[in-house]
């Protein structure tokens, strides 16, 4: 194949890639909106206020909630997604992530958080101690 034909094919493939990336971005936005709607509906169903505003939690509850949410989402979550799923304020999530940084790891793109090995261990210990407290 000559250079002009290859250039034409490359141009077409780049255009197709651009179209696909645009569609992916729109789908990701729709997925994010759907997740937010689900979180709002779950809070409404559970009878809780928006992100638990106005409610004081006991010491350590936010940490346990963040750990629990991330344990259930090994692919990682953004701070907003953690807040929505844990039903706490984003600022509380930020405080937990900063205070207990050894238990959480930012993914390479910097927007998603996952539990470190020590965070997963702490979550398991938390689950065991919680189950022992139950009758």
Corresponding CATH architecture of the largest domain = Orthogonal Bundle
The coarse overall form would be elongated
SSE succession: HHHHEEH
Number of domains: 2
Taking the alpha carbons of the first and last residues, their distance comes to: 75 Å
Q: Rg, please?
A: 21 Å
Largest sheet: 2 strands, antiparallel
What is the beta-strand fraction?
under 5%
In the sheet with the most strands, the strands line up as 1-2
| CATH superfamily annotation of the largest domain | Winged helix-like DNA-binding domain superfamily/Winged helix DNA-binding domain
Please, could you describe this protein's structure?
It is a single chain. The protein is mainly α and 135 residues long. It has two domains: 1-47; 55-133, Arc Repressor Mutant, subunit A. It contains five helices and two strands; from the N terminus they run ααααββα. It has helices at 3-46, 61-71, 79-86, 90-99, 117-133, and strands spanning 104-106, 113-115. The protein has a two-stranded antiparallel sheet with strand order 1-2. A hairpin with a 6-residue loop joins strand 1 (104-106) and strand 2. Helix 2 (61-71) packs across helix 3 (79-86), helix 2 packs across helix 5 (117-133) and helix 3 (79-86) crosses helix 4. The model has no long low-confidence stretch (mean pLDDT 83).
């Amino acid at each position: 194949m000559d250079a002009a034909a290859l250039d034409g094919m490359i141009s077409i493939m780049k255009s197709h890639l651009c179209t696909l990336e645009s569609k992916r971005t729109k789908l990701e936005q729709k997925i994010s909106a759907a997740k937010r709607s689900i979180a709002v509906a779950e809070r409404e169903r559970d009878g809780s206020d928006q992100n638990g505003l106005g409610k004081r939690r006991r010491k350590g509850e936010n940490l346990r909630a963040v750990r629990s949410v991330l344990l259930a989402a090994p692919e990682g979550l953004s701070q907003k997604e953690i807040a929505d799923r844990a039903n706490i304020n984003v600022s509380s999530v930020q405080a937990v992530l900063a205070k207990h940084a050894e238990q959480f790891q930012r993914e390479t793109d910097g927007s998603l958080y996952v539990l470190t090995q020590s965070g997963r261990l702490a979550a398991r210990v938390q689950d065991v101690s919680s189950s022992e407290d139950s009758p």
